From TrEMBL:
SUPFAM superfamilies: Thioredoxin-like (SSF52833). It holds the Pfam family AhpC-TSA. This is Thioredoxin domain-containing protein. Gene3D superfamilies: Glutaredoxin. It comes from Sinorhizobium sojae CCBAU 05684.
Length: 225
């Protein structure tokens, strides 16, 4: 893996570097090179499963598997959660057809150019830092799950209560106080070149905790066939 980390998310036309991660949904390791020359790949890079929005993003990504498979596109979800903790979660919350891997060091996020966001009192330098005044002004809309659009922290607390998710010591180990890992999806062609992406970095924070647009993704995947 290259030691060079981009200062912005990889863009269409950029070649993704190889990464090797511990598999969650099966034994062994998973590498991006496993897919090169074989099939396009949608890779989702998420926070740990302690993030209620990311739990939903992972499930939503798995639901797109049939449509993506029809177009020959494989999928891989990467979470910061330790392997055994993640396996325990998926044992009780199974997601059929999910291929997932663990990256507690956030190495994949770094090589794809997704920054670790620092929370400050009231100074924002997006996407490297954000003031709490800006965070409380953000609005996340999850119809059917949240009663109304609300800031990510309040909405996340409500979703955690709804899910009954209990944060364990393993979850705490990968937390970085005062920071939040930004996340995103990248669609790679057979050569590992980025052809489409959706990340929390763009739109000056308006994408934080938002789900991708399935129609936009499937349209991009269709162009790889």
């Amino acid at each position: 893996m290259s030691a060079h980390y981009p200062d912005h998310p990889l863009q269409p036309g950029d070649k993704a570097p190889n990464i090797v991660l511990d598999a969650i949904s099966r034994e062994g390791r998973i590498a991006l090179d496993d897919f090169r020359g074989r099939s396009p790949l949608l890779i989702g890079l998420f926070r740990g499963l302690l993030c209620p929005f990311c739990r939903r993003h992972v499930a939503a990504m798995a639901r797109l598997n049939p449509a993506l498979s029809e177009k020959g596109v494989a999928s891989l979800a990467v979470v910061n959660t330790p392997v055994e903790r993640a396996r325990l979660y998926f044992r009780y919350q199974p997601i059929p057809g999910l291929l997932a891997a663990s990256d507690t060091e956030r190495a994949s996020h770094r090589v794809f150019g997704l920054p670790l966001l620092e929370f400050t009192q009231n100074e924002t330098d997006w996407p490297h830092s954000v003031g709490m005044d800006a965070v409380t002004a953000m609005r996340v809309d999850w119809p059917g799950e949240l009663p109304e659009p609300m800031d990510p922290a309040t909405g996340g607390d409500l979703l955690d209560k709804k899910d009954g998710y209990e944060i364990t010591e393993a979850d705490q180990q990968v937390r970085i106080p005062g920071h939040m890992q930004l996340v995103g999806h990248f669609l790679l062609d057979r050569d590992g070149v980025v052809r489409w992406s959706f990340t929390e970095v763009e739109e000056d924070g308006r994408n934080v905790c938002r789900a991708l647009n399935p129609e936009e993704l499937i349209s991009a995947a269709s162009q790889l066939s």
